[in-house]
Write a structure and sequence with these properties.
Layout lengths: L4 E4 L4 H12 L4 E5 L7 H7 L7 E4 L2 E4 L1 H11 L12 H24 L2 H7 L5 H14 L8 H18 L13 H15 L13 H9 L6 E3 L2 H7 L23 E6 L7 E8 L3 E8 L3 E8 L3 E5 L3
Parallel strand pairs: 1-2, 2-5, 4-9
Antiparallel strand pairs: 1-3, 3-4, 6-7, 6-10, 7-8, 8-9
Helix pairs in contact: 1-3, 1-8, 4-7, 4-8
The structure holds glutathione.
The site of glutathione has 12 residues, from α1 and α3.
């Protein structure tokens, strides 16, 4: 059993990305189910306010955003690598970032959020559940641009052709083995495939569905169930020692300053604490929670805003 804890829920696409990577790397993991909509008191106890799904916990270290979770998993469990030999890392990361943002929002989610999909997704749920979900996501995405289903259908077809062309001569997007780019491109399309009334769009190209079957066959590895209360109790272990990491300052903010970190794109919930890590790729803050004790909450630098708390 490893000490990797994933807080997630079954229908979350970004969680599917990480579940498959845990399976690919054969890392046994602990699985905590979290709510799909707010309120999420046990999530907030650990993250300090970050509400997006999934997040990863290793003792008292909390990793927000799948980009950083994947870096951390690759660092701790380098084999098999998410960066196949012979493929530039920059290419892997750039395709992965495109998939996690543009393919996900403009393509998959824009296309999936149409009435027939919601009717399918919530077929067995009371009407209040659909309303509550729609209201939660509308609040979370307030201020972010909205894309209509016609634009998304057009964009998704173009994106599918791009993915299809990468699979013309090899079984995975950039190589014969999966890279981070495959896991990132897979999860938005996995979400579409699960919604039967709209899934046919994936068959408009020929190589994507067979590749998706190969990705699905990787599986989720071995997970053990853990309750959120047990996870909070595990956060009482000592957080990472941070002193040795190089300090990379872009903001004129010194170590231990009171700061907030907030996503730049949506779900603008600020997490407050003292800045304890500022490397080229990562920011982290130390905060103390009534229930979880002292935790370190880690974020990728790309996509997050760091601000000093006014004295
Ligand atoms: N950039 C983030 C995006 C995560 C994200 O948007 N997750 C969706 C679910 S897959 C979410 O948080 N939805 C709202 C929620 O679960 O509360 C990441 O890579 O982790």
């Amino acid at each position: 059993m490893s000490n990797i804890i994933l807080h997630h829920y079954p229908t979350s696409p970004f969680s599917e990305k990480v579940r498959l990577i845990l399976g690919y790397k054969a890392i046994p993991w602990q699985s905590v189910m979290i709510p799909r909509i707010m309120p999420k008191p046990d999530v907030v106890a650990l993250t300090g306010g970050y509400r997006r799904t999934p997040f990863m916990q290793i003792g008292a270290d909390i990793y927000c955003d799948t980009a950083l979770m994947c870096d951390e998993l690759e660092r701790r469990f380098p084999s098999p690598s998410l960066y196949p030999a012979g493929v530039p890392c920059g290419l892997v990361d750039t395709v992965a970032q495109w998939a996690d943002t543009t393919l996900f929002w403009q393509g998959a989610i824009g296309y999936a959020f149409q009435p027939k999909s919601l009717a399918f997704m919530f077929a067995d749920a009371p009407p209040e559940a659909t309303k509550a979900f729609a209201a939660d996501r509308a609040a979370m995405r307030a201020g972010a641009p909205r894309i209509g289903p016609a634009e998304s259908a057009g964009a998704l077809k173009v994106f599918l052709q791009r993915v299809d062309s990468m699979l013309e001569t090899q079984p995975h997007l950039l190589s014969s083995t999966p890279s981070l780019a495959d896991f990132s491109a897979y999860h938005p399309l996995w979400f579409v495939r699960r919604i039967e009334p709209i899934a046919a769009i994936l068959a408009t190209v020929k190589n994507v569905l067979p590749w998706m079957d190969r990705m699905a066959a990787i599986g989720h590895g071995t997970a053990t169930k853990l309750s959120s209360a047990e996870a909070i109790a595990l956060a009482e272990s000592t957080p990472t020692r941070v002193a040795d990491l190089p300090w990379h300052d872009e903001h004129g903010i010194a170590a231990d300053t009171a700061v907030t970190i907030t996503p730049l794109d949506y779900a603008f919930d600020a997490v407050a604490g003292e800045l304890v890590i500022a490397t080229a790729n990562e920011l982290a803050i130390k905060r103390t929670d009534e229930r979880a004790g002292e935790v370190i909450v880690h974020f990728p630098r790309v996509g997050y805003k760091l601000e000093r708390v006014a004295a």
